[in-house]
Amino acid sequence: MNRKRGAQLGNRNAFKHGFYSDQFKQAERINLSQVQNTDLTNEIELLRVQIRRYLEAETVALNQIDYETRLQALRTVSLATESLTRLIRTQVILNANPLELKIDQERTQPLDDIVD
Fold first, then answer.
1. All structural domains of the chain with their residue ranges
2. For residue 37, what are the CA distances in angstroms to 42, 54, 73?
3. Which phi and psi (to 5°) does residue 99 adopt?
4. For the chain, which has fewer Cβ within 10 Å, the N-terminal or C-terminal residue?
5. CA–CA separation, 42 and 108 (whole Å)
6. CA–CA distance from 72 to each of 34, 57, 69, 107 (Å)?
């Protein structure tokens, strides 16, 4: 039997020796191994909470922040909301019925043509 290029089926080297693997505690590794890959609800809620906290802190300190720092803060919030949008879109795709996705793609096709 010829070996295929890359990692073979069942290879867990990347999981055990991945870039971030040494950053996780043993209990976190156990929790991560039990996470279902099709649910991003917790990540979505976490990001929403972080954005809200950031905006509240910025509102309190608004008079003490210079213009350049405000622009940087706006960029940070924009990037965070963009990430939130991608997470929500991915969540919808992961949980959608394939037939529903096809119908949605047909609905948005005219918009895609206009944008391109």
1. 39-115
2. 12, 28, 31
3. -65, -40
4. N
5. 28
6. 37, 14, 5, 37
pLDDT in tens, the chain (116 residues): 576 666 666 666 555 545 556 667 788 777 777 766 667 888 889 899 989 988 888 888 877 888 888 888 889 999 999 999 999 998 888 887 767 666 666 666 665 566 55
Token representation of residue 26:
């043993």
Dihedral angle over CA of 31, 37, 40, 41, nearest 10: -60
Residue type, 54: Y
**Token pair recorded at residue 12:** 């867990």
Residue type (1 letter), 96: A
| Torsional class of 24: left (φ above 0), alpha (ψ -120 to 50), beta (otherwise) | beta
Q: Where do we find the tokens 């809200």?
A: 52
